[in-house]
């Protein structure tokens, strides 16, 4: 089971004082990451891009975005990381390109160009909404047609039905494998199976065909870690991992539990622990039959779990409890930058603090029908910006992230919440996580053992892992004390110094039994 650390390069570490994190900044921190226990680092896209969607709009797959560095820097990163026993996972966007990609420029000038069919066009488009709000079609007068963009207007969807296009993409992936990449995170991969002729945006048979081809042409027989970002039914995602078509899949059911079902991401409701139990248990049960799920709380699209679900007054206890709850289950572990010392989001702030195209679109559209206050409240909980603020390394200017003017405001809590302070404290989240990862990696029960939910109370998330050893994990998911029955066994890990007859706020325990 792998330990993967996710880096959002814009906000990781800036070494050239332009206010933007860079590849050299990542190289500088490889030792830090090795020490924590990372075996892979996943870096969100660093390719050439106009940055309409922060790199998820690639205009040249073969070029590195100069704001991050050069191709040589990337090669140096891959090679230096190897010396630290870390492999690099590149983030590839195969569902769409930027409209500034050469293919799109040619495609939108000439219907006879071979590139025209690399994209999805319509003269009479059916009504489809883009994920970022508004219509998913944009008109191009020069060809008198609309192109499809499931995300921003600058992100044109590729036509995977075109065999030449698929070949070009596979060739590009193999180029990065030859360059030494250790894996790929594949962006919105569930969207490539489109069959618009038959009005089907999500043709699962077509998707499987493309995924098998991708595996065959790029990954098969190679030591390459692949993770597809895919909104699929659990059984379908499981099938892909079990049959090694992809190493694992990102699914989002467990982090959509604070949304009103069917109303999109902005209609909020309180997370119910029972719902979380049900979703995570279902995943674990399905993967008992083989394959490996992914374990994560946050990423660059998902605001940090700490402030989103828990009371920030208990930062150390809350964050360590979240780790215990998630990372002793079966799965590949994904840690999002800053979680290792308890970073949190910006909270309720005005719209001028937001940078993300999704947040700004939502604000502009939603304030037409809703009060500004309620829109800002939704943004405070769910906007992607909250996960994207610069890393808080120490309490110096700009939290040690940059000596220039940061591209995005540093969270004002950085004098209190930063790596250095955490590391030097006797209650260090980083050190707790490191220990947890060591325990996990040295015991196959956590990889291969049975997973069983244990009922201990409505506010307690408890589970057993059983193989040769028998472990009980007990997590108080509330900021109130919780009564418990006598927990017998040897305490291996406890985020408090002791255990009484009540669990303390967010107390989490790993107990070895029998
Ligand atoms: C994925 C990325 C997200 C991006 C979207 C469109 O969900 O994680 O950041 O905006 O795809 O590429």
Quick overview of this protein structure:
By secondary structure, the chain is an alpha/beta fold.
Description:
Helices cover 29% and strands 18% of the residues. It has 514 residues and is α/β, with parallel strands linked by helices. It folds into 3 domains: 367 residues, Alpha-Beta Barrel (TIM Barrel), CATH 3.20.20; 55 residues, Oligo-1,6-glucosidase, domain 2; 67 residues, Golgi alpha-mannosidase II (Immunoglobulin-like), CATH 2.60.40. An 8-stranded parallel β-sheet has the order 13-12-11-5-2-1-15-14, covered by helices on one side. The longest helix is centred in the first third of the chain and has 17 residues. The protein is globular. Alpha-D-glucopyranose binds next to loops.
Record keyword descriptors for this entry.
514 residues, alpha/beta, TIM Barrel, Oligo-1,6-glucosidase, domain 2, Immunoglobulin-like, 3 domains, 8-stranded parallel sheet, 5-stranded antiparallel sheet, 15 helices, 22 strands, 18% strand, globular, binds alpha-D-glucopyranose
Task: Supply the CATH class of the largest domain.
Answer: Alpha Beta
Helicity level, as a percent range? 25-40%
Task: State the helix count.
Answer: 15
How many individual domains?
A: 3
Shape: globular
> Any guess at the CATH architecture of the largest domain?
Alpha-Beta Barrel
The end-to-end distance, rounded to whole angstroms, is 25 Å
Strand content: 15-25%
**Radius of gyration computed on alpha carbons:** 23 Å
CATH topology of the largest domain: TIM Barrel
Q: Which hetero compounds are present in the coordinates?
A: alpha-D-glucopyranose
**Overall pLDDT:** 97
CATH homologous superfamily name of the largest domain?
Glycosidases
Q: How would you characterize the largest beta sheet? A: 8 strands, parallel
The structural class is alpha/beta
